[in-house]
Amino acid sequence: MTLMPGVYQLVFQLRGSSELDFEEMIALEEELESAIGDLGNVDGHDLGQGEMNIFVHTASPVRLFETVRSLPLVARAMPRLKVAFRPLDGDAYEVLHPSGTYRFTVA
After folding, report:
1. 49: burial class by Cβ within 10 Å (0-12, 13-18, 19+)?
2. DSSP 36
3. 11-97 has which CATH code?
4. What is the spatial distance between Cα 39 and Cα 20, in angstroms, rounded to a whole number?
5. Count of H helices and E strands in the chain?
6. What is the C-alpha separation between 90 and 106, in angstroms, rounded?
7. Which of 38, 83, 104, 106 could form a disulfide with 97 if both were Cys (CB 3.0 to 4.6 A apart)?
8. 74 φ, ψ to 5°?
């Protein structure tokens, strides 16, 4: 996969809407913030329509994902986690996880 230089939005997406789901998302966001260092910048989160999203701005979305995928909370969430990125000024997402063909959207 060849990326053009620039800034990308990397999205970590989980299904859920309960208070417990929200707490899990906040813990995951905090883990990402403390681990990504110079690779990116956590730009916040949103929730709605049964999904929760954590947004990260980065010039290296693949490298950042490979760096954080083994963190304890990320690893625990992997079976339920979707991860995709797009150019910050773009619309189409490229899926990093899980493998397979499906449409990634942010509600």
Report:
1. exposed
2. -
3. 3.30.70
4. 29
5. 3, 5
6. 13
7. 83
8. -65, -50
* pLDDT tens per residue across span 35-90: 999 999 999 999 888 899 999 999 999 999 999 999 999 999 999 999 999 999 99
* 3-state class (DSSP) for residue 57: strand
pLDDT given for residue 97 in this prediction:
95
* Number of other residues whose CB lies within 10 A of the CB of residue 17: 13
Q: Where are the domains of the chain?
A: 11-97
The burial class, CB within 10 Å (0-12 / 13-18 / 19+), for 23 is exposed
Indicate the residue type of 18: S
| Cα atoms found within 13 Å of the Cα of residue 56, Cβ hemisphere only | 30
Per the listing, tokens 């954080």 go with 68
